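for the writeup, i need someone to sanity check this before i put it in the appendix. the sequnce is what the collaborator sent (i think, or maybe the updated version? ugh). structure was predicted straight from it, no edits. if anything looks off just tell me and ill rerun, i have time this weekend
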Amino acid sequence: MNELPVCAHCQQQWSYPTTLKCLFRLRCSYCGNKNFFSRGFRYREPIFLLGMMLVNMFLLPMLPISFTYKTCIVLLMLILYIGTLPFGLKLSAEEEPYF
């Protein structure tokens, strides 16, 4: 789970800064080919979304803190998610079906 992604075309392992830079367009900076999220990796995003919804709808309203602190908690969770997203990222050469 601690490994950084490998390009599905040229088999070059991406560094952490390269992965963050290419995270949203997924174009390899070494060979220039487009990569896609593998089907197994795409399950992380709905789990994160569900966790964020649970925290926002149930946990944060119960805490007696101001809206500013609640917003900071949500932003911190988003930063942590994006910061850990490169680890365990699996790429494929072609877009795989969702199911």
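Helices lie at 16-21, 44-62, 67-84. The longest strand covers residues 36-37.
thx in advance!!
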